């Protein structure tokens, strides 16, 4: 993460000289030179305050990233940064975070407790491990093209999101591929299209998901065009994740949520043997309703952590959570 941190600091500086930027932040020495050379890194809080100092709306970027947790950093401080990181963490064990981030368990524990002020590279490593969305957070504050170390991931994530928007069923199709339904089978006579509507794989996807053949074929083609799947020797391999974290695209996200809510509602008419549906209509205090909102956020984060680490992939599933108030 050192390179991404150095490039981010350069992007925050903008057109100012390193000396002018250092002076703007209140330093007598040319501290920006040492930061950008990687000889010394500022803490994350120092960087966020520097962003504010040069006119970057840090809080708006945090809200676009994750609105519920942004409130923890309405006022930037080391204590509040630890609260924000823990909001991204959910209940994920420290050992898991340390292993994925390549930080020590001691280091992770102290950063999350607020006992240590994380440097910018450490902060980036934690954000990436806890959310998988570091390129998106960075792009909320600076032009992502100014941070080449994260640019390819940002583009791939954008392509994956667009695939999910344009072909909502692509998420379910990809989940089925991950469970081992990845053999193309014999192609229809005279066809060179691996996703022809008469291809065995397309027919299987359509049958399992109760889809029109064309919808299943279009979803497979979209996944291939987004470089999420690849065809090789009659098999499909998954090359990258289909990210559907849509918090920055309000209108498209709403359409996607509506799609899966309708799928859930339609499933109630023909539930599977392992389906679980629960509902509860109630009245509570505003304070307790806010607690329920926080619980749902933590539950979803914990569920994503379980899903990410789960091996082998044996079941494709849909989970829809909707807490609403009148």
Folded structure, characterized:
A hairpin with a 2-residue loop joins strand 1 and strand 2. The protein has a two-stranded antiparallel sheet. The longest helix is centred in the C-terminal third of the chain and has 24 residues, at 286-309. By secondary structure, the chain is mainly alpha-helical. The chain folds into three domains: 2-146, no CATH class; 165-238, Arc Repressor Mutant, subunit A (Orthogonal Bundle), CATH 1.10.10; 250-309, no CATH class. 58% of the residues lie in helices and 2% in strands.
Shape: globular
Number of strands: 2
Largest sheet: 2 strands, antiparallel
Which range best describes the helical content: under 10%, 10-25%, 25-40%, 40-55%, 55-70% or over 70%?
Answer: 55-70%
Quaternary? single chain
- Using only CA atoms, what is the Rg? 23 Å
How many domain units? 3
Overall average residue pLDDT? 87
What strand order characterises the main sheet? 1-2
By DSSP (H or I, 4+ residues per run), the number of helices equals: 17
Low-confidence stretches: none
The helix-strand sequence is HHHHHHHHHHHHHHHEEHH
Distance N terminus to C terminus? 45 Å
Structural classification: mainly alpha
Strand percent estimate: under 5%
């Amino acid at each position: 993460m050192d390179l991404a941190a150095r490039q981010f600091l350069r992007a925050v500086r903008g057109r100012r000289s390193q000396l002018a930027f250092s002076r703007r932040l209140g330093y007598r020495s040319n501290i920006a030179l040492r930061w950008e050379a990687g000889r010394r890194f500022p803490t994350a809080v120092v960087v966020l305050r520097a962003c504010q100092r040069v006119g970057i709306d840090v809080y708006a970027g945090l809200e676009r990233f994750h609105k519920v947790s942004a409130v923890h950093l309405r006022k930037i401080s080391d204590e509040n940064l630890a609260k924000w990181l823990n909001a991204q963490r959910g209940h994920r064990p420290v050992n898991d975070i340390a292993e994925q981030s390549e930080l020590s368990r001691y280091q992770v524990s102290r950063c999350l407790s607020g006992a240590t002020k994380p440097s910018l590279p450490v902060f980036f490593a934690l954000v990436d491990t806890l959310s998988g969305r570091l390129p998106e957070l960075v792009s909320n504050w600076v032009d992502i093209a100014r941070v080449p170390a994260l640019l390819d991931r940002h583009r791939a994530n954008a392509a994956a999101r667009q695939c999910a928007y344009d072909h909502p069923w692509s998420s379910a199709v990809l989940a089925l591929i991950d469970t081992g339904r990845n053999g193309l089978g014999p192609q229809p006579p005279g066809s060179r299209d691996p996703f022809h509507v008469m291809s065995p794989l397309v027919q299987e996807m359509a049958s399992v998901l109760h889809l029109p053949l064309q919808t299943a074929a279009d979803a497979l083609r979209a996944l291939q065009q987004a470089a999420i799947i690849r065809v090789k020797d009659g098999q499909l391999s998954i090359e990258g994740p289909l990210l559907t974290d849509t918090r920055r695209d309000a209108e498209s996200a709403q359409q996607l949520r509506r799609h899966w809510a309708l799928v859930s509602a339609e499933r109630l008419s023909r539930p599977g043997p392992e389906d679980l549906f629960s509902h509860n209509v109630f009245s509570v205090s505003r304070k307790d309703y806010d607690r329920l909102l926080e619980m749902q956020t933590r539950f979803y984060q914990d569920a994503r952590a379980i899903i990410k680490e789960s091996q082998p992939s044996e079941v494709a599933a849909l989970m829809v959570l909707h807490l609403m108030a009148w």
